Amino acid sequence: MATIKEIAERANCSIGTVSRVLNFDESLRVSDEKKALILKIAEELQYKTISQRNAKTHYKIGVVSMYTTLEELEDPFYLSIKLGVEKRIRDEKVELVVLNDTKDGYDFNKLKGVDGIIGIGHFTKADIKAFASITPNMVFVNANPNPAKYDAILFDHDNAVREVIDFLTRKGHTKIGFIGAQEMRESKRIDLHETRYVLVEKYLRARGIYDEKYIHHGGRTYHDGYRLMKNIIDTDELPTAFFIGNDSMCIGALTALYEAGIRVPNHMSLVGYNDITNAEFALPPLTTVKVYTELMGEKAYELLIDRLKGREIPLKIITPTRLIIRQTAGKPETDA
What we know:
The protein is α/β, with parallel strands linked by helices. It is 39% helix and 18% strand. The N and C termini lie far apart (62 Å).
């Protein structure tokens, strides 16, 4: 049986860090990437904590992510939701089957025998049909593919976008851009963040300050944010503030601005999205929208258990968001 020492050696970190990650110690300050690596190694080695070894399995649940394991490291949003599920079932009598996408698609055979599935992210109709052939009990997180049939956990996009636009306009910004985490996956053809583009346009138009030349379509990673901001700088069509679709891209954009001698927030304001662990430690620390990803994971598990106990009516839960004001957004330079 695998040991914590083996996991620590493979993850290149201390035994104490591994133990605290596996026991979901909330006081531990470690990056989402390191958490993901430790959990991935633990899964590969089939490691179980003492409480997991002592528990008698009552349910078998599949947790399926639309991301590959590499994509989860590049953009830890869905990883944080998965951590919420794993944290919630820590002391429960549950066997967990974790499945990520791969370049060859999902290995649905791994889900055979599960009582229910938590789908994290967006899935094709074919994927959902395959899940349904395994079990009728499904909860989707950050997607709502069939409200009349399946439970869903969403967060309040509308409030998040409105709060950011309100914040920036109160600061005096009238030239506000948006770099969205839009991604058309070749295998799925899914536009992941179309809703946010619509909302940004809605609230900027309501204030009479929408300008299409400041709206940019991006990817999802640090490197995407860096590349896009470099290209934008080269066009010399810069707004005074950018709202960016996730924190990984925002940190990449921050690096590009720094290299170009454009100071944040003196010359450019940035607001990110998700409040990942790294956001607080960026230089300067990111102003960003906090999404309660772990809570979404916890509630997804609770909804699924409720379904397994006999509830028939599908439910939808919308979790709140909150603007975390740090140091990357200020007044536009002309107002200084």
